[in-house]
Amino acid sequence: MNHLKKFVTEPRYPLILFAGITFVIWIFGKFYQPILSEAQVYSGESISSNSIGQLVVSEGIVINSYRNKQGIQFLTLKSENGEYRVSFFPSLGKLSFVPRKGDLVRVTGLLNIYRKQPQISPLSYQSITKISDESSATTIVSPYPIIDITEVNKYMGQTVWINNLIPTSVEKFTSQKGYKMLRFQVTSSTGISVNGIFFEGNWDKETLDIMLSSQKRISMLATIGEFRGEVSLNGKQVRFD
Q: Can you tell me where the transmembrane regions are (predicted)?
């Protein structure tokens, strides 16, 4: 017992233990290769507790890519049956590409749940590969409905592409919890206006530049919801028409 107490209280021992665990994780991520023949195909559907820990392979379009201060890469992918997250830790190695919105990627990893959403945890840096990017995505069928702003009420709660929009206002602000957000308004050619927000992690400088181009028409990928009795957009991605 005295030896255990000394181990816990001595500053250098916990540091050595932490370094050892980190090294083991790094070695595991660097050299472990998933057995692809055992992986089940996953397409974004809801999962049960029996599926947690299952080795899966999935293809999806990147709709959000975010790296935090610790270097962890977070992706949100859209596949045939829904959206799911991918969390890639630096200990797994370095990816061969920089994930960007619109990329079509293939992921192999362990299926789990994070904040009530499906998530795939890759097993190595080779577990994520890019199949194609947005510039060559003409052969890829969009997994989202493409609509006009007059149809938003029909797609409440769904994620859609809304075409033929003009940004009429955009404002950066910080939430009470310290998140950096974008508040915006878009208007159709017929004069219909809708307000919305880009949450932190869903927008970057390119997003802001596009939203500030009030003379050009854009398309927006957004989840349609309601705020204070009015239709509201949760922005995911924008591009010029």
A: 12-32
Which residues constitute the domain of residue 205? 146-240
Domain membership flag for residue 193: yes
Helix/strand/coil (H/E/C) assignment for every residue in the chain = CHHHHHHHHCCHHHHHHHHHHHHHHHHHHHHCCCCHHHCEECCCCCCCHHHCCCEEEEEEEEEEEEECCCCCEEEEEEECCEEEEEEECHHHCCCCCCCCCCCEEEEEEEEEEECCEEEEEECCHHHEEEEECHHHHHHCCCCCCEECHHHHHHHCCCEEEEEEEEEEEEEEEECCCCCEEEEEEEEECCCCEEEEEECCCCCCHHHHHHHCCCCCCEEEEEEEEEECCEEEEEEEEEEEC
Residues 167 and 209 in one domain: yes
Instruction: Establish if 24 belongs to a structural domain.
Output: no
Domain end among 97, 130, 163: 130
pTM of the model as a whole:
0.51
